[in-house]
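Usage example:
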Amino acid sequence: MLGQLGEGARLLAGGQSLIPLLKLRFANPEHLVDLNFIVGTSFIKEDGSALHFGPMTRHAEIEHSELVKKIPVLHDCAASIADVQVRNRGTIGGSLAEADPSGDWANALITLDTTVHCLGSKGPRKVALKDFILDAYTTALAHDELVAEVEVKIPPTGSGGAYVAFKRAAPVYPTASTAVQLTMEGDICKDVAIALGCVGLTAIRAGEAEAALRGKRPDDKTIAAAAEAARAAADPHPDMRGSAEYKRELVAALVKRAIQIALRRARGEQVEGVHLYA
Amino acid sequence: MPETAATERIAVQMKVNGKPYAREVEPRMLLVEFLREECDLTGTHVGCDTTYCGACTVLMNGLAVKSCTMFAAQADGSDITTVEGLEKDGQLHPIQKAFGDAYGLQCGYCTPGLMLSTFQLLSENPEPDETEIRKAIAGNTCRCTGYMNIFKAVQLAGRNMKGA
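Running the assembly step on the lines above writes:
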């Protein structure tokens, strides 16, 4: 259908970003193809090694999923997106396909082994999330392709994660956000992924912050080093939400907090309600 | 923009407060416009028209949605509840009564949306604490800033509904 309608056609998923953009005339498609009535595109399934999300699975369904609670970074993310009404409509596939630099899902999912299943006139293909989001509002999707599924590998035992977004109010995009996913082996941080959102054109993997923790004992010193490295990795734009300097400071604080929560969860502690409002 | 946009029509039918409506509407008509202009149900308000304020909140199949951020055509086949659908047989719904009794409104513009967000909350959690209420109504802005009485109203409504 997208092939027939041509380049002027856009897909409408949950509509919580696209409809506001249409009202502002920032998006001006000739045709809108509504995906909301396609049966079988909203699901959360586990196959032993991975969770599979249908592209039209609403944030609220993910927020309330018992399967997803086992991967707290995903639960945190789903529960912190905007407000109840937006979570009842917005979808995981729509969020990834839009690739808004302030979007939540890409930032949380990039800390896990995430694969986007794409489907188009040339057939299906799988793209790793890091190769799927190319730039702000730009993905690897061809014009006649859509997101058919999001696959997330279940982290090994001894893992913990956290997603912390700092927002002025619920319905707005975060000022900055961070996702941390780590795996402990005894006292040593065996592996870690740290991602920063809203402070670059895409979610940023903070490699040097990860290196500050990987293979080390997470203590005040190594966590502070990771937070400092994250501050340096952030590339924020000054806007009405704050100056670049303020956002870097915020990123360092969020990373520190997210690492601490992720560590507690890796030890099996239950930590609830981690997102922050100004 | 294509010239045809203004003349195309989409057939839409939905139940609003239990009553069926069938109309042919412009594809770009928003659900809130459908409710206000086609159904004459003006209790659903347009506040910001930018998916922020929640004044346009209605229930679609029991879930709170911002009716300014959906096309009417997307509600095809669904059950919509607006503030007008809360009262039954001339009796205010316990949520409406609680907002009055606890002074949970000042100018009242945000109130219909708040009551429908409250409806979804209480249907899932009849005894919410303040943190749970804050989270549930975070998508509803009260510009009179009367939030403390709104929290009291939501809790009172929960107690009234349990007793009912």
